[in-house]
Amino acid sequence: MATSLYFVWGCSEFKNEQAVGAETAQAEAEDAMTAASEAEPLEGADALADEETSNNYEDAGDVNPIEQLIEGVPIDVTFPVNTSMSQIHERLAYDIVIQSKVDSIVINNVTINRGNNCNINDYSRDKYLPANLKFGRYTRLSIDCDVNYIREVEVETNLGNYKFDQFVQR
């Protein structure tokens, strides 16, 4: 019985140490947030930002996954069969179709499986990219692999980069 009491006493001591550590970390985080909000912006940063946006092209880079969930993905990706290429090669050939779900988007590049073992046909890439798409419009690009081996597609747009890794519709 004395062992049980000692064990309970030891647990309560450990719990108190954790609570003190959590309070300290929270206080440090609040101090950092206060310092960041009081910091002055860099001189000339506004002028530099104005110069970069004057070329009518803005690369938003990778899109925050939380924003992507809230705002939704502005494009759909599907893989229909390319019947003419299937007849020529006497095997199933596929295309990748990227369709706009927003009023205006520019598709700059498409990378399949991080560039490994599956590519977009050079002719399609040169002729159809970049693609300026309005709502409901799409671009169709020939790919040189079996759609069953595609694990990831990254689409680079003027609104950000979007990764697709789960394909329901093939």
TrEMBL record:
What's the protein name? Uncharacterized protein
Recorded superkingdom:
Bacteria
Q: Which organism is it from?
A: Acinetobacter genomosp. 15BJ
